Amino acid sequence: MTVTARPPSLRSVVPPDGARGVMIAIGILVVLIAVSALVGWLLSTVTASVWPSAPPYMILVWIALALVLLTPTIGRLFPWISNWYYLFPAIVFILAFTVLPVVLTVNYAFTNYSGQNSGNPDSAARTEAQLSSDRLTINLPERGTDEPLSAFLKCRAAGCAGEQVVLYDEDASVPYRFAVASIGENSVRLAQPVPATLDVAYATRINRIDRVGLANFQEIFSKASRALWPVFLWTISFAFFTVILNTLAGLILGILLYNKRLKGRNVYRTLLFLPWAIPAVISVQMWVALFNQQFGIVNKSLGLLGLLPIPWLNDPLWAKISILLVNLWLGFPYMMTATISALSTINDDLYEAASIDGASRWQQIQAITLPLLRNSFTPIMLSAFAFNFNNFGIIYLLTAGGPAQEGRESTAQSTDILLSWGYNTAFASSGGQNYALASAIALIIFFLTLAISLVNFKAAGVFEEARK
């Protein structure tokens, strides 16, 4: 008779075995964090209604307090879970710095969230307000506009019932939000009376964050010829040529410096490694000075040779060439180091046998070195392409996306890549701090990067290797 061992109960001290136990533990910890976050949010909402000037970080205080109280309770319900509490920091960091940004980006991509529509009171529309004796009606005699009051308050419905209006005292330092019951021609009827402690002097509207569906994506593709397509083509070209140039330079220098008969090769390696050791912020700023059209040493040297100065950073084509050259300076040491490391794994007996057979140095490189380096360099080149596809730093530091190019959007100039285009849209004044449109661009970048990665992996045979 065969006796089947029963799996341990979730209430026992012994944790569940295998992948099932891991998933149960992670699930319990995620539920604990989610419940604590929900409790913290509810308590912070109550706190805000009782204490309108409560600081925003109170939600973190309530969440931490809920975790402190719920953790021992979960430990009593599942005694074995205490062994998994070391996962708390990892799960919290993943949720806070990976999951939450992704969720917010996807959410904002379908809204009108921007510097103007931020969910905050509109200080530019602030107007004088007069409170009635019953403290329920706000009169707005001088709004400075002929538009209807419903349009001024940006109401969803004509009666504005359920909307919010923001009131200030004379100092206008703290906003007070009140629900609207109805509106007149120049008056707002509140759902509840204004407290006696508030002496109303000003009123304004709230610039709400509304859902707009696919409007952001429609705007992007409607202007694709002025932003999306030229920026995308340059991003691909920039990443591709950077990888090719850096790989060729790294291979040539690595093969030359690996020669054991070369005198002083360690000195050469050290000197050629310096561009990678120096922080890119310093190196790029140095190149900005070197490429200055009037005072840069590069054009000064060309002038001594009788050549005209080159507009390195002031012409769209030359600016792209400048970016490739500077990125070559920054990137070839890494490829050179990778080449030297990979060459050290090749057996010297292969070269000795080839020399006995009469093969020249170039024939040895063709028949032995390059084929054996291919497997090592394939993942390096793929990762380098993915890195340079989103290499925001050099674009921002060297050209800031410029120079300007006629017929292009102000946020997507001649050397802007997809990531810098999104950055300009979200944070630059030319983009109007349009976070929603930048989030839509981020989603497009994600799908483009995913598609390119799949093509690269397919071409490199990564999927076939994984099946073996």
TrEMBL record:
Name of the molecule in the record: Maltose/maltodextrin transport system permease protein
Function of the protein: Part of the ABC transporter complex MalEFGK involved in maltose/maltodextrin import. Probably responsible for the translocation of the substrate across the membrane.
SUPFAM superfamilies, alphabetized: MalF N-terminal region-like (SSF160964), MetI-like (SSF161098)
GO MF, any single term: ABC-type maltose transporter activity
Keywords from the named record: Cell membrane, Membrane, Sugar transport, Transmembrane, Transmembrane helix, Transport
Organismal lineage: Bacteria, Thermotogati, Deinococcota, Deinococci, Deinococcales
Domain ABC transmembrane type-1 span(s) in chain numbering: 232-456
Pfam family, one: BPD_transp_1
Species of the source: Deinococcus reticulitermitis
Residue runs in coiled coils: none
GO biological process: maltodextrin transmembrane transport
